[in-house]
């Protein structure tokens, strides 16, 4: 049998050590994810780390460092497809990005273990756990902070609900009023809501906005005949 002829005890022990390290470190990362009831939990992170370690170790034994580098490139892209499976879009909200990034990091840990870079794998695991635990209070504090409309990077929209017969006039007047207030318009769109009502939406060029000034602009526009409602809103979504 070819197995008996090619079996090397040292190589086998080296592979066993790489897989064991990947298993232990993947367990640490996965346990934190499992505790928080994430989609990709304990077993998923362990299997990702083990699989990455196995592929890299196999390449190391067959083709040395050059082979390992090529395999690592494929591991990175392959985990990208796996991570896409845990990302879910619910309306305008996207969930699972952190879980996908953690899977990606688990693959990096496994790759380090497979390449016999044990210390680097341990260090990376510490940083991954720190990112998912120690940074959580900072994230919560930032999320609770009030949004500064002047300094935040958001897209602003000014919306007019008008009668169909005044659409051409109010579309032009909307743009003129905003530019007079030093708010350049990037795009103006007309949305037909019904036979008796249409909406004109002006998208402002990215700039610092004073909410009070936009409120005043909306009030002036709402005073025109045929304008049923004038308002503005902001979106932080790209």
UniProtKB/TrEMBL annotation:
GO terms for cellular component: plasma membrane. The keyword Endoplasmic reticulum does not apply. Keywords: Cell inner membrane, Cell membrane, Membrane, Methyltransferase, Transferase, Transmembrane, Transmembrane helix. It comes from Tardiphaga robiniae. Virulence factor required for growth in low Mg(2+) medium and for intramacrophage survival. May be involved in regulating membrane potential by activating Na(+)/K(+)-ATPase. One of its GO terms (biological process) is methylation. The chain crosses the membrane at residues 12-30, 42-62, 68-88. Residues 19-139 form the MgtC/SapB/SrpB/YhiD N-terminal domain. Gene3D superfamilies: 3.30.70.260. GO terms for molecular function: methyltransferase activity. InterPro entries: MgtC-like_C, MgtC/SapB/SrpB/YhiD_fam, MgtC_SapB_SrpB_YhiD_N. It is a multi-pass membrane protein. Pfam families: MgtC, MgtC_SapB_C. It is found in: Cell inner membrane; Cell membrane. This is Protein MgtC. Residues 156-232 form the MgtC-like C-terminal domain. Belongs to the MgtC/SapB family. Its main location: membrane.
């Amino acid at each position: 049998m070819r197995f008996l002829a090619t079996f090397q005890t040292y190589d086998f022990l080296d592979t066993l050590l790489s897989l064991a390290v990947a298993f232990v470190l993947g367990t640490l990362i996965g346990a934190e994810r499992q505790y928080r009831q994430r989609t990709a939990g304990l077993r998923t992170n362990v299997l990702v780390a083990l699989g990455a370690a196995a592929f890299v170790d196999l390449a190391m034994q067959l083709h040395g460092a050059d082979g390992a580098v090529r395999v690592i490139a494929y591991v990175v892209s392959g985990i990208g497809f796996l991570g896409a499976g845990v990302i879910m879009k619910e309306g305008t909200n996207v969930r699972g990005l952190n879980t996908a990034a953690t899977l990606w990091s688990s693959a990096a840990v496994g790759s380090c273990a497979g390449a016999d870079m044990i210390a680097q794998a341990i260090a990376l695991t510490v940083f991954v756990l720190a990112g998912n635990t120690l940074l959580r209070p900072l994230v919560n504090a930032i999320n609770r902070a009030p949004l500064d409309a002047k300094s935040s990077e958001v897209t602003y929209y000014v919306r007019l609900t008008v009668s169909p017969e005044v659409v051409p006039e109010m579309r032009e007047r909307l743009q003129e009023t905003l530019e007079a207030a030093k708010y350049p318009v990037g795009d103006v769109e007309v949305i037909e809501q019904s036979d008796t009502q249409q909406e004109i939406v002006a998208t402002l060029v990215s700039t610092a906005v004073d909410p009070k000034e936009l409120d005043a602009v909306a009030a002036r526009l709402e005073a025109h005949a045929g304008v049923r409602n004038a308002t503005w809103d902001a979106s932080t979504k790209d």
